[in-house]
Each structure stands twice: as structure tokens, then as C-alpha cells.
Amino acid sequence: MSSSDAAAHPARPDQMFNREAEWDALARFVCDERPGATLGLVSGQRRHGKTYLLEAMIKATGGFYFDGQAAAQAESLRRLADRLAAYTGAPQPPDWRRWEEAVDALLALGDERPAPAVIDNFPDLVGQSPALPAVIHSAYRRLHKERPHNRARLILSGGSPSIVTRLFSGPSSLHDLATLELVVRPFDFRKAARFWGIDDPRLAVQVHAVVGGTPAYRGDFVCDDAPAGPDDFDAWLCRTALNPRVPLFWEARHLLEEEADHADRALCHSALVAIASGCSTRGEITECVEGSLNDVSHVLAVMENRHLLYGEPDAFRPGLTHYRIAEPLLAFEHAVAWPNRVSLEQEDVAEVWRRARSGFDSAVVAPHFAQLCRNWVMEYAASDTYGGVPEAAVCGTVPDPARHARLDADVAVRGMTDGRPGVLLSIGLARWDETMDLRHLDRLRHIRTVLAASGEDTGQTLPACYSATGFTPELRAAAGEGEVLLVGLERLYGGE
């Protein structure tokens, strides 16, 4: 056991990309010299780097780490006893029969110094020992009363934020004891581009549309194989996400198997295929899968609770929910790989990809680009870009009674201005493979007119065009007059 100085905050490892904020929060927690045992909760989806972050912190501070597994309680207790004995140098491991004994021993590490200890994959342990959260809650209550100078720094990790919330709620809520609640999220689109070493923004969008911001997909799943440049994207996809001999090819299926109940899995796949094909509302998805509304509503709720889907209200019809696939790899799987899986396993991958290429652009990259534009509004746009502070950026549909048609806005920005919440600051169109011109501006003006006729306050609504291909000189001239906001790839990845 190392005797590191807990008072000094350890430096973040050079090889760790980003995660400065997460590292600093963990360091402040584990190195806190003040008396009193504390509890930390770390959550996040799988493959986002929780374990890597925690193992690095424990190594830097000389703490104790235990990786929980879905095993019988007796086996978990034996494994924990063996690990703790090796950590403390005890001549033999303790013979624990109950979690009460194990938890007390872990917390006793903090009797003399700030002692960081991590129990990773904690939900797997709770699955076999449902009373474990209550056991830890009781142990902390006793410790605070009997040994107030103990400085145990216990971290429980694993599972999505929703799973952690469910586990730790109730009469003996661990949330009430926690002084740290940290969520490890995927990298946003700009950080993901840097993580993959991509400086071409068009290539960055394409790669992000496949693997998103999940850090494990570069190292563990494709052995650090990144596209060499824009001309290498097709070949890279064929040798990674479309290659049955590479783990990334199977990952989307594993994600669904881990998160969805077996009885619902087939309908989950069908619903995801429907969403990947352009259906976004509950009714559209139900019609596409030819199922019952109750069954489809159930699997949509399951996948939304497991963070496989996001459900967002329509910008102009709050009672209407649009669903989108949260994990880009799942969207890619169900739009491209799933319909061609047999061919990918039996035919030349490059030929299969050639046939599927246009569908990838329209069904995967185009909607993903629109979502990145909405993300840019909320994360990177300057405070004065829209004349107010953006509170939400979502898509919206507008009925056009005069033309008996539906008008779509890809980026509708609502915000706060002059003390009024929900003001419509902007309506925008996003085009992945289309140079935008004055016709797009005219369409936005028409949408604005229809909205105004329906009672929407559009006095401050700025038309916006988001394009990955570019804008005509005429549209740029209109932007120069303040008639429209233009956001291209360079601004998306490097500007405000």
C-alpha cells in the first residue's frame, strides 16, 4: 500500500484526454483532509470512461479499488476480502458472511487518514444483494455518530444516472449522504474530433455520426484505427464498424442486449429501425412497425429510461414528442448495418457499403448534422448570437393550413429575453449535402409568417441556415444585412 500524501491533489495523467473537470472534482473529494466520512456517487453509461478515470485516481492516491461483478453474494464477499487483505498486507483475508462486516472494514480504512476506496460496477452487486445500499447508509450513520473523525472517502460507481437514482432512492437514500455526485458523459462533438485526431470538420461529422463521443470505441473496439483523412473515411468504415471481425461491428447489438429486456428486444430493434428511417413520433413508429400503440409506447419508455432514446417535445406542439436515438452507433446500426448484416458477413464489405452509402448520408449523417447544430446552439453559440439566452434548441413541425402541408424547422431556438421565457429566438434549416440559397431563406420566412398567424410571437425570430456544404453569395449578402444567420462547418467546430 502506497503512502501518498492525501493533502496534495494528484496531477491528471498525461495520457488522459480531457476530463479536467471530472478529475478535479474527484481529487477534491478523495483528498479532502477535513474530518468526517464522505460518500461519492459516480455514474455514466458504459464505455464512457468511468473505470479508467477511477482507476487512475486510485493509482495516483494509493487508494483501494474493487470491481464488482454479477456474482452470488458469498463470492463477491470472498473476492472483496481477498483484495482488501492484499491491499492492507493482512496475513489472511477475513471471513465475511454479511455485507455489514465488509462495509465496516472498508470504512475503517479512513480512521487514520483520508482513505479513498472505490466499489465499481456497484449495481451488479446490488442485483444480488438488494439490501446493500441500506447497509451502507446504516454504516455511515453509525460512523458519523461513533467515529466523527474518520475520513473514509468511499466512491460507489457504475450504471447510468437513472439507474443510480433508482438504486439510491427510498427511505435509506444514499443521495442524502453523498457529497459528490459525478456523471461521466461522452465527449461532445468538438472534443470527440480532437480525441480522434481529426481536423477536417466534414470528416469529424461523419465519424461522430458513427461512434459519437464514446472514448472506448477508439481504443478497445478498433485498436486505435482512426481515418487518415477525408478520403479514408469509406475504407475506415469498411475495416471497423462494418467489419464482422472487429468488436465495433457487434457493439450496437450488445448495447441493446445489456439495456433492453429480452421480451422487448425484437420490438426495440424494430422501433429503432423505424426511427432510423425517419419516423420520430409515437404514431409514426407504431404505424411503421405495424404493432400496437401500447406495446410500442412501452418499449419507447423502456429505451428512454435506459438512455437509448431521447424524447423531446416539438418546438411548436408541446403535446407531440419526437424520439431520436441517443447513441450514434445504434442509429448507424439500425439504418445501415442491421438491414445489411447477412450481406456484410457473406459478401465483400466494400461492395455492400457502396450500395448503402447514399442511405448513410440521408438517414444517418443528415439528421446527425442537424442535432450537432442544435448542440452548437446550446454549448458554443455566443451569448449575443440569437439576441437572447437560448434555453432550448429542438426541432419543430408547423401545420400550414393554406397549403395543406407540414413545415419542418430543424433548429428552433427558444430562450429568455426581456424577462420573458420561451421566446422564439430563431428558426433554422439544417442541410448536410446542400448548398443553401435564398429559397431556404424564403422558406424560413414563410414558416415565420405561418407561426405568427397561429399566435406565436415572432417579433424577435431570426431565420438561420446551417449547412455543411456552404451558402450562395446572395444568401451571404442577406446575412450581411442581418436578415439571416449562417452557420457552416468551420463555425460549428471553431466559432461562436
Can you tell me about this structure?
This is ArsR family transcriptional regulator. It comes from Streptomyces halobius. InterPro entries: P-loop_NTPase (IPR027417). Helix content is 47%, strand content 17%. By secondary structure, the protein is an alpha/beta fold. The chain has 3 domains: 20-183, 3-Layer(aba) Sandwich (Rossmann fold); 190-368, Winged helix-like DNA-binding domain superfamily/Winged helix DNA-binding domain (Arc Repressor Mutant, subunit A), CATH 1.10.10.10; 380-494, Trna Endonuclease, Chain: A, domain 1 (3-Layer(aba) Sandwich). The strands form 3 sheets. A 5-stranded parallel β-sheet has the order 2-3-4-1-5. Helix 20 links the parallel strand 11 (462-467) and strand 12. Helix 8 (189-195) crosses helix 9 (201-211) and helix 13 packs across helix 16 (328-337). The longest helix is centred in the C-terminal third of the chain and has 31 residues, at 349-379. The protein starts with 19 loop residues before the first helix and ends with a helix. Mean pLDDT is 93; it is low at 1-7.
Compile the SSE list and pairings.
Layout (H helix, E strand, L loop, with lengths): L19 H11 L7 E6 L6 H12 L2 E4 L5 H16 L10 H10 L6 E6 L1 H7 L3 H15 L5 E6 L3 H8 L9 E6 L5 H7 L5 H11 L4 H4 L13 H7 L7 H13 L5 H12 L5 H8 L3 H13 L3 E5 L7 E5 L2 H10 L3 H6 L2 H31 L9 E12 L4 E13 L2 E12 L6 H16 L8 E6 L5 H8 L4 E3 L1 H6 L2
Parallel strand pairs: 1-4, 1-5, 2-3, 3-4, 10-11, 11-12
Antiparallel strand pairs: 6-7, 8-9, 9-10
